Amino acid sequence: MTNRQELIVNNVDKNKQMVLDAERWLWAHPQTGYTEWEAHNYLVEKFEALGYELQLAGNIPGFWTDIDTGKPGPKLAIFGELDALDIANHPESVNGMTHCCGHHGQVAALLGIAAGLKEPGALDGLSGSIRLIAVPAEEMIQLEFRENLRKEGVIKYNGGKVEFMHRGVLDDCQIAMMVHGGNMGDVYDFAGSHGSNGCMAKTIKFKGKSSHAGGAPHLGVNAQYAAMLGLQACNDLRETFQEKDTVRFHPIMMGVNVAVNIIPDEMKIESYVRGGSLEAIKRENKKINRALTGAALAMGAGVELCDRPGYAPEIHDDAFMKLIEQCCIDLVGAERVMFDYTKWGTGSSDFGDITCVMPGVQFSCAGASGTGHGIDYYITDPNRLCVNSAKAQLLVTDALLCNEAAAAKEIIANYKPQFDSIPEYLKAIDEISLDKDAVKYDENGNAVVDFQNI
Ligand SMILES: [Zn+2]
Ligand SMILES: [Zn+2]
Q: Relative to the alpha carbon of 181, which ligand is closest?
């Protein structure tokens, strides 16, 4: 490491205990997307104590703050996510929620970055500015709750980052990064990949008719059977999904009005359709909606289809990855860094939305054990998860913005965005929204089906 890099690392180490305390506190106060007020309030207090003036999202959790170097140059956005998961059977769950995706470690690291940037010499030789963003709601869960927030006008989008894009928080940013913690065993400290799937969110409601399950099933229409038939048809369609599109459809049945002696008159399903491109997601979703509609018709049931934009495929900028890889190597050594420039993940993140309009990289750091989104997920090395993450991100910040921000400017100049602007991107995903009562019967029992926006 250079003297400059040693100073940066030392600036984080001076604040190490605050970061580690934040990780423990945030782990013990998990809340799901758009309700993360405890983490929000804790972090607002800590950031303000460091001397930051914050912009608050206001009616949802989340805030951001700018650090200006005083010299002209690009603005770098750095994200930390606030939200936890609904996973009541995790041994350390609080009110049914746990940070078993480790997002609390991201905001603990963001606090370390904020503290490091306040240390003497932190901004020496840098140009441009840095926007630190504590963002809510990465996990796209509780779709009904979010749909209600949307109807109330609180939010427009399910994902916190795309909601922040909609609110203008990213308007003057030109480049973005974040670090997601995970279980990487003892082999690596940092990893990078080419990117990951995008997704859309689906709520499907099969509608039947209740009746006595034993005495008079002939008077009912079984919504559960219609749902099962629909999912069977979707399963049979899987062989038509092409490998190149990495499509994932993973429905979960969420029973409503359930009792063993009543023919169920409603069966709700939530799912995503994930894929490697927005085009593939839209194409395969059309088949899925057709299959669900056909199943409802077969059983004499109805089906309501509700599709909402999810996240865009996340595509990392290669040149930016190279710079990050080098910073990670400088910090922990080449043997503890694994950047794979072709690896594609089949999960999704709303950081993908960011990468549609500006060069961005989400890379990974170690420090967790067990299974992500699983009941055995724990933080076993908060130093690697939070402190090392803050150090790496500050080294990247310095490499991007030193020397009149030459590296950042070059990455931005060579980047070819998938969409020319944030409004253009939002317009494209708005076209995904669909609300259909897909099967309508007339008095003779004939039906009209309608499952597409045409
Ligand atoms: Zn997750
Ligand atoms: Zn996550």
A: 2
